[in-house]
Amino acid sequence: MPLHFDIWNQKSISRPEAVVELNILPFLSSHHAQGIGRSLIEETLPFVKYQLTKQDSVLKHITVTTRADNHAQKLYRNTLGAEVEATISNLYSSDEVFMVARDVTV
Predict the structure, then answer these.
(1) Considering the domain boundaries, does residue 57 fall inside one?
(2) Pick from 35, 4, 34, 36: nearest CA to 22
(3) CATH no. for residue 44?
(4) Among 59, 58, 62, 57, CA closest to 80
(5) For residue 10, with 0-12 CB atoms within 10 Å meaning exposed, 13-18 middle and 19 or more buried, which class applies?
(6) Is residue 95 part of a domain?
(7) β-strands 8-10, 58-67: how paired?
(8) pTM above 0.90, yes or no
(9) Residues 67-105: pLDDT tens digits?
(10) Dihedral (CA of 10, 3, 50, 14) sign
(11) CB under 8 Å to 64, separation ≥6 — which residues?
(12) How many domains does the chain have?
């Protein structure tokens, strides 16, 4: 069974090394910078890793996309070690960045 949670999606099914996507974590601006996003990631990622082991797989990378001007990039960088791999101009209402976290230890 593929890995799927409200905030996580497995992108590479039936492979020994999995790529997992972190979906956008939307919060009201009044809830920004309170540690909620970090907590969600840190509390659910161990379960993601456990589910992968049940599929005879291990976590290889985590991907995430966000607006280029979104301060959430800092969250993804600090929590996961994600770095911007590409910027896609004018994808939605603005430029979008594609970030990848490699060798995640959270």
Answers:
(1) yes
(2) 4
(3) 3.40.630.30
(4) 62
(5) buried
(6) yes
(7) unpaired
(8) no
(9) 899 888 999 999 999 999 999 999 888 899 999 999 877
(10) negative
(11) 21, 22, 23, 24, 76, 80, 82, 99, 101
(12) 1
pLDDT tens-place string over residues 27-49: 546 656 667 788 888 888 999 99
Residues contacting 84, CB < 8 A, separation 6+: 73, 97, 98, 99
Domain contains 50: yes
Residues 6 or more apart whose CB falls under 8 angstroms from that of 65 comprise 24, 96, 97, 98, 99
Instruction: For residue 98, give its domain range.
Output: 8-102
pLDDT in tens, 46-56: 999 999 999 89
pLDDT at 26: 63
DSSP character at residue 102: E
Asked if the structure places residue 56 within a domain, the reply is: yes
